[in-house]
Design goal:
alpha+beta; three-stranded antiparallel sheet; disordered N terminus
């Protein structure tokens, strides 16, 4: 009995542990949190109400997602006042910017891999 050659991984058929989907970060990849990170990255500093409106969320839902991102050290939350009105501002940390960049790179690889498969 002859030994069959094993298929070597290629760009189109990577090892299962190297599939782009395995690199997606569960904290970052969740739809709302990915939205928070991308909007915050674009704006550099964003106000809570703007995020709530832009992402079409309730204040409670947004607050829960911000807590997850803050505990992961991906954002910083600053509370203060603008005039007499209380405000909450969100900024991306360097770790948050890196996490977002990694997530986008994995998504691009996933899309590229998908586009390489014939229809």
């Amino acid at each position: 009995m002859t030994e069959q050659p094993t298929e070597r991984p290629t760009e189109q058929h990577p090892e299962p542990d190297q599939h782009p989907a395995t690199g997606l970060d569960d904290v970052v990849h969740q739809r709302v949190r990915l939205g928070i990170l991308t909007v915050t990255h674009q704006a550099r500093r964003v106000e809570f109400g703007f995020l709530r409106t832009t992402l079409d969320l309730t204040a409670g839902n947004l607050g829960q997602h911000l807590t997850v991102l803050e505990k992961a050290a991906l954002i910083e939350v600053e509370k203060g006042y603008e005039g007499r009105r209380p405000r909450t501002w969100i900024t991306l940390t360097p770790a948050g910017a890196q996490a977002l960049q990694r997530e986008i790179a994995h998504l691009k690889r996933l899309i590229h891999q998908h586009e390489q498969v014939p229809s």
